[in-house]
Each structure stands twice: as C-alpha cells, then as structure tokens.
Amino acid sequence: MRLPVIATRWSGHLDFLREEICYFVDWELRPVPWNNDVELSAGHQWAEVSVEHLRKLMRQVFENREEAKQKGLRGRAEMVGGWQWDSVIQKYWIPQLERLLS
Known about the structure:
Layout: E1 6-8, E2 23-25, E3 27-31, E4 45-49, H1 51-63, H2 65-82, H3 85-101
Parallel strand pairs: 1-2
Antiparallel strand pairs: 3-4
C-alpha cells in the first residue's frame, strides 16, 4: 500500500520487516489475558506495545511525512520484489522440500 508501518520487533513479521522500511515500537512480553476471545491463545504470551512509544512514533510519522513516505515506498518495493509467490517458493519452499525429501 506504500504506507509506513509501525510494528513490534518480535514474531514472524521480522522475516520481512527491518528499520529501513518500518518503525519498530517498544514492547514487553506479557501473558495473553484470560478473557481473550481466542481460546487457542490461552497460556501463551504476546508483545504488548508501549502506548507512549506508539504515540511518539505516530507523531514522528505525522511530522516527518517525507521520511514516512520513503519508508512506505521502500517497504512496498521490497514486498513486491522479494515476497511474491514465485520468489518465496523458489527461495524458501523448494529448499525446505528438497531438504525434507533427501
């Protein structure tokens, strides 16, 4: 979408996010609340973001629109260039399938 991204520096999206294309918000690992409506999450942990830091990053994006725009454009270019199905299959799936079959 060519938009700036704010995300935690934790979990699966770190496979494709990095400083040059996004803003990383501070976080702390916390137990998933007991009243979460997804039973599969019971007993697990998640990254709880710092609301103060999130506000700061949102203000940074608002006040530095050109910087944010450039991060969004770089992020889009990387996603289109390196994370299309053809690229992902060649780069990740085929080597793993070959490894499992050997």
